[in-house]
UniProtKB/TrEMBL annotation:
It is an enzyme of class 6 (ligase). This is D-alanine--D-alanine ligase. The gene is ddl. It comes from Bifidobacterium biavatii DSM 23969. Belongs to the D-alanine--D-alanine ligase family. GO terms for biological process: cell wall organization; peptidoglycan biosynthetic process; regulation of cell shape. Keywords: ATP-binding, Cell shape, Cell wall biogenesis/degradation, Cytoplasm, Ligase, Magnesium, Manganese, Metal-binding, Nucleotide-binding, Peptidoglycan synthesis. Gene3D superfamilies: 3.40.50.20, ATP-grasp fold, A domain, ATP-grasp fold, B domain. PROSITE patterns: ATP_GRASP, DALA_DALA_LIGASE_1, DALA_DALA_LIGASE_2. GO terms for cellular component: cytosol. ATP binds at residues 145, 197-199, 205-206, 238-245, 340-341. Residues 149-374 form the ATP-grasp domain.
C-alpha cells in the first residue's frame, strides 16, 4: 500500500514563527513513516514558502529560537490552485518547475496570524486540498479573542468580563499616555476589578500581554495598551479572574463526528511557590524550564474535571470546531468554569499541553498525529 503524502507546514509570518518550528520538529520526529511520507514546507517570516531548507527535525528550543530561512539548496514552493492536490511545485534555479507530486493532505502546524486564522485554511479550501484542523470560520473567530468571547457568550458559556479597545483611535505620538484617563474611565464604567490583563486580540503565546495591578493608574494602563499595540490594534482589557487556569484538549478528527475531550490539565507555575507574582508569559511557557510544569489530570474533584470537559466540548461546538483545539478555562474556588480562549492549532511539541493531555487520556503522541491525519484523508 502506497504511503499517503502529507505536506507539513511550519514557520510563518506570525510572532509565533519559532514556536511553530519547534512544534513541527516534534511532529516530524513522531510521524508514522510506515503510513505517511512527510513533505516539510517551511514559510519564512517574510511569507516565502520553501522546500529543501534546514531539516526541522534537528531543531530544539535549548539551542535558541529556530527560524525558517532560505538556505543553499532550498527551492521556492509555487502553487497552481487549479490543479488542487497536484498543484504543489518547486521552482528550480533555472526557473523550471518540478512537481512535488500528489499531496493527500496538509498538516498546517502554524500558530497565529497567517496560519491559524483562516487564511491558509481558505487557500486550501480553494484548492480542494484536505487539511488537518478547524475550518475558515472557527480558525478566524478563535484567532480573535474578542469574537471568540462574542460567540461563546451567545452560546451561554461564561467568559471573563472585559472591554475591547480600538487602538487606532488613540494618540500614538504620546504612546497613548494622553488616553490614560479615558481608558481608566472605560474600565470603571464596565465595573472591571483589578488586577487587569491587557492583551492583543489576535496574537498568541502571550505576546504583548501585561498585568495591570494598580487601580486608577492611568499611566500603567496606557503603557499596557501600548505594549499590546504592536501585535494588534484591537486590544482586550479583561478583569483578572481569581481562579486556576485549566486546559482541555478536544479532538474531532473527522468533521461531523462527536468531539471528545481529554482529561483537563494544569500548567503549574513553580515560582509562585517561592512567592513570585508570576503569570504564564512567553518566558514561562518556552524559555525557563524551571518556571512551570504540566499536571494531567489537574488536581481537581472528578465532578469539576467532568464539568471542564463538558464546557470544552460545548465551546468547540459553539465555534464550529473540527480537527483539534485546546480550550483554556478558568475554574474558580467554588467550581465555576468559564472559557478564557480557544487555540485551534495549539502548541504541538511532545511536552505541550495538547499532546500531554491526550497521552494522559490514553493516546500516544504518534497515534494522536496519525488519528488527526487519517481523519481528513479521502
Amino acid at each position: 500500500m502506497a504511503k499517503k503524502r502529507i505536506v507539513v507546514m511550519y514557520g510563518g509570518k506570525a510572532d509565533e514563527h519559532s514556536i511553530s518550528c519547534i512544534s513541527a520538529a516534534g511532529v516530524l520526529r513522531a510521524f508514522d513513516t510506515e503510513r505517511f511520507e512527510p513533505i516539510p514546507v517551511g514559510i519564512t517570516k517574510a511569507g516565502q514558502w520553501i522546500v529543501g531548507g534546514e531539516d526541522p527535525r534537528g531543531w530544539n528550543m535549548a539551542e535558541g529560537l529556530p527560524v525558517v530561512e532560505k538556505t543553499a539548496g532550498a527551492r521556492d514552493v509555487v502553487l497552481d490552485v487549479a490543479l488542487g492536490q497536484d498543484g504543489f511545485f518547486a521552482r528550480n534555479e533555472d526557473g523550471t518547475m518540478e512537481s512535488l507530486g500528489h499531496v493527500d493532505a496538509v498538516l498546517p502546524v502554524l500558530h497565529g496570524p497567517y496560519g491559524e486564522d483562516g487564511t491558509i485554511q481558505g487557500l486550501l479550501e480553494m484548492m480542494n486540498v484536505p487539511y488537518v484542523g478547524c475550518g475558515v470560520l472557527a480558525s478566524a473567530a478563535c484567532m480573535d479573542k474578542h469574537y471568540t468571547k462574542v460567540l461563546l457568550a451567545a452560546a451561554g458559556i461564561p467568559v471573563a468580563p472585559g472591554i475591547t479597545i480600538d487602538a487606532r483611535t488613540l494618540d500614538l505620538d504620546s504612546k497613548f499616555a494622553t488616553n490614560g484617563d479615558d481608558l481608566v474611565a472605560q474600565v470603571e464604567s464596565a465595573g472591571l476589578e483589578y488586577p487587569l490583563f491587557v492583551k492583543p486580540s489576535r496574537a498568541g503565546s502571550s505576546f504583548g500581554v501585561t498585568k495591570v495591578e494598580h487601580a486608577g493608574d492611568a499611566a500603567e494602563l496606557a503603557a499596557a495598551v501600548y505594549a499590546a499595540y504592536p501585535h494588534d490594534w484591537r486590544i482586550l482589557i479583561e478583569q483578572g479572574i481569581d481562579a486556576r487556569e485549566i486546559e482541555c484538549a478536544v479532538l474531532c478528527p473527522k468533521a461531523g463526528d462527536e468531539p471528545k475531550a481529554s482529561w483537563p490539565g494544569e500548567i503549574v507555575l513553580d515560582k509562585r511557590a517561592g512567592g513570585d507574582d508570576q503569570f504564564y508569559d512567553f518566558d514561562s511557557k518556552y524559555m525557563d524550564a524551571s518556571a512551570s510544569h504540566v499536571e494531567v489530570p489537574a488536581n481537581l474533584p472528578d465532578d469539576v474535571l467532568e464539568r471542564v470537559r463538558e464546557t470544552a466540548v460545548k465551546a468547540f461546538k459553539a465555534v464550529d470546531g473540527t480537527g483539534l483545539s485546546r480550550v483554556d478555562t478558568f475554574v474558580t474556588a467554588d467550581g465555576e468554569v468559564m472559557v478564557n480562549e480557544i487555540n485551534t492549532m495549539p502548541g504541538f511539541t511532545p511536552i505541550s499541553m495538547y499532546p500531554k493531555a491526550w497521552e494522559a487520556t490514553g493516546v500516544s503522541y504518534t497515534d494522536l498525529i496519525t488519528t488527526l491525519v487519517e481523519g481528513v484523508l479521502r
